[in-house]
Amino acid sequence: MPRNRLTKYSSKNDTFLQQFSVRIPPQVVATFTDAQLTELQKVFRERVNKRHAVDIRLSIPFIKKRFYLVFLLGKEKRLKQNRKAPIFTPVNNIFLIGSCLVLITFLLGALYIIEMVLGISTFPKKEIQEFVKYLMDSFSI
Known about the structure:
The protein has helices spanning 3-9, 15-23, 26-29, 34-49, 90-118, 125-138, and strands at residues 54-62, 65-73. It has 141 residues and is α+β, with helices and mostly antiparallel strands. The chain folds into two domains: 3-49, no CATH class; 87-141.
């Protein structure tokens, strides 16, 4: 397919194909058929137009490097074979455990502050004391 055919195919309204052809070497662009260009256009348009119900992106500075955190929530549209990405990798496990510990610490701290500042009893003291006494008696501490 000659280069002028791509230029003819990509009209002034189709900025995607114009930008796409600039990023790829001319000898490669010349090999695309109209059907391939149409499909490429569909794929990239779907990626650009894809919206999620929740889309949170954070950049976190850490010492001299930056890390990013992305949380996306939306309707599942992936193919079945693409859904089998490993979730429980060692790094994911460490992150999940750390997140749970931070959450538990936050909740317990909030309960403690509610009890100290507002005077509202959030911990069942009598039951906790009985449980601790039971543990001490059971293990002869």
